[in-house]
Automatic annotation (TrEMBL):
The Response regulatory domain, residue ranges: 4-120
Protein's recorded name: Phosphate regulon transcriptional regulatory protein PhoB
DNA-binding region(s), residue ranges: 129-227
Keywords: Activator, Cytoplasm, DNA-binding, Phosphate transport, Phosphoprotein, Transcription, Transcription regulation, Transport, Two-component regulatory system
Originating species: Aromatoleum toluolicum
Domain OmpR/PhoB-type, chain residue ranges per copy: 129-227
Organism phylogeny: Bacteria, Pseudomonadati, Pseudomonadota, Betaproteobacteria, Rhodocyclales
Function: This protein is a positive regulator for the phosphate regulon. Transcription of this operon is positively regulated by PhoB and PhoR when phosphate is limited.
Length: 234
């Protein structure tokens, strides 16, 4: 499992320790020493998960969590709060503010890595290496293999990530902007029609095995992967 993790922590020694451990666990870590820097980073590219210290200089971690939850674009980013406070009411406040989990310092690196894995599995399955099966297609992130039954499907890296995201979020309509954020990870420098190009390539790759119909165009909205046949006229 390799996820893009935004680590927001103002104490350099702790930041270093956490980043080193997450790096060893295979994650890509982007660091911020305060909430304002973290907001700038999130504006450029959505992370798969935010590891957020409660006590920060300037805006607090809990306030940043509240803002991420209030913004449509960042609403679903998984958040794990880090805190030196161990009181039950703080934990409740953190979870009410929308944190997915809560870890009290000091914690072991192994515990942190395990908690991250659990939250990603629950909230961002496209960032885990769990195999996915849907509508007769199987995709294995660990080996980068896609197959329809016994028949292998060859995909480019972007089509693979696109299919992985769609298969882990089926039956939902995703706008082009959302797909850029989730699959390309950076919505600033890529045009929305790029999404159409890669959807076309993905369909072309799925056509020989008869699965191109899984990727449906929802007019005026975006794309959806569905194991149900598309409704006529949609
Ligand atoms: Ca702190």
């Amino acid at each position: 499992m390799a996820a893009n993790i935004l680590l927001v922590e103002d104490e350099p020694a702790i930041q270093e320790l956490i980043a080193a451990n997450l790096g060893r666990a295979g994650h890509h870590v982007v660091r911020a020493g305060d909430a304002e820097t973290a907001q700038r980073i999130v504006r450029d590219a959505l992370p798969d998960l935010v590891l957020l210290d409660w006590m920060l200089p300037g805006m607090s971690g809990i306030e940043l969590a509240r803002r991420l939850r209030a913004d449509e674009r960042t609403r679903t980013i998984p958040i794990i709060m880090l805190t030196a406070r161990g009181e039950e009411q703080d934990k409740v406040a953190g979870l009410e503010m929308g944190a997915d989990d809560y870890i009290t310092k000091p914690f072991s690196p192994r515990e942190l890595v395990a908690r991250i894995k659990a939250v990603l599995r629950r909230r961002a399955p496209q960032a885990t290496e769990d195999p996915v099966e849907l509508g007769g297609l199987s995709l294995d992130p660990a080996t980068h293999r896609v197959a329809a039954g016994e028949r292998p499907v060859t995909l480019g890296p972007t089509e693979f990530r696109l299919l992985h995201f769609l298969m882990t979020h089926p039956e939902r309509v995703h706008s082009r902007a959302q797909l850029l954020d989730q699959v390309w990870g950076d919505h600033v420098f890529v045009e929305e029609r790029t999404v159409d190009v890669h959807v076309r390539r993905l369909r072309a790759a799925l056509e020989p095995v008869g699965h191109d119909g899984l990727i449906q165009t929802v007019r005026g909205s975006g794309y959806r992967l569905s194991a149900q046949p598309a409704v006529a006229g949609v």
